[in-house]
Write a structure and sequence with these properties.
Elements (H helix, E strand, L loop, with lengths): L26 H22 L7 E6 L10 H6 L4 H20 L4 E6 L20 H12 L6 E4 L5 E6 L2 E6 L10 H16 L2 H7 L3 E4 L5 E5 L4 E7 L5 H5 L8 E8 L3 E9 L24
Helix pairs in contact: 1-3, 3-4
Amino acid sequence: MVAPLTDTHVGDRVVFDQTTGINSYDLDIFNKRLYGWVEQVILLANYRRNIADVDELIIPMLGDMVSGDIHEELARTNIGNCMEQMMNGAFLIGQAVTKLAQHFDKIRVVAVVGNHGRMTRKIPAKDKYMDWDHMMYQWVAAFCAKQKNIEFHIPKNFSTIFKVAGRNVLIMHGDSISGGGSSASFTRMVGQMRGLQQQNKEWADKQHFDDVMIGHFHRIDEIDIGTGALYICGTMKGSDEFTTNRLHVSSPPKHLVTYWHPEHGNVGKEIIRLDKFDSSDSQFASTIPEVWGCNIV
């Protein structure tokens, strides 16, 4: 089972006036949606267990986990500075992964950074891991250190590959893809990545990919790439004032879940709608201890 977690934008505040009312977002809503996501992943796994073993959960974390301050208006309207965003996100996601670990024999977390958490105004080419996302991932891993069935892979590269059911899945955030999210831009990216790999045959043999998972585009989609599919995995934040004012595609907050078989590859998918949890009373502990790195989860 593969359940990506992406575009959480912890620290962002989205407020719509009464004439729109499409979406709202803050730290409390993130907490409720995250808790609901965990509950739904467990529920969906238990449904599948009626017909098959679902022993392992892979959680690709695809970036933009924090809101960041790369835009002037975000620096003014965010709930807390980047350090606080990272702390709150790590604290809550650490609880989420720990809760999931009680329901699976093994969990693998594979994490790449996005663009909102970068520490420079311009998008860097070198040291792309210098990002608040990377720091958050490291703290989630630290919080989960006592959970022996959780394994983390947090590379410094902007992309990485994980294996599931005998297939190689390439993950990246998606901000490096030019073209505004058109099908042609994704097809071009796949060709460029495969071309880069072929420049080093030994590396290409180890790092070829069959499928791709990305975030960034705040929607769910699936595009055939010949060897498999490219999956755009959704967003926890949902739409905001930017997408509304620009009349961009406005996608509800939702996340993709996929199921994989060692002989048949991807054998199914589900979509978790997250804003239905906004009015829920269930959420993770939200008060970070004064010494917040000790015995949190």
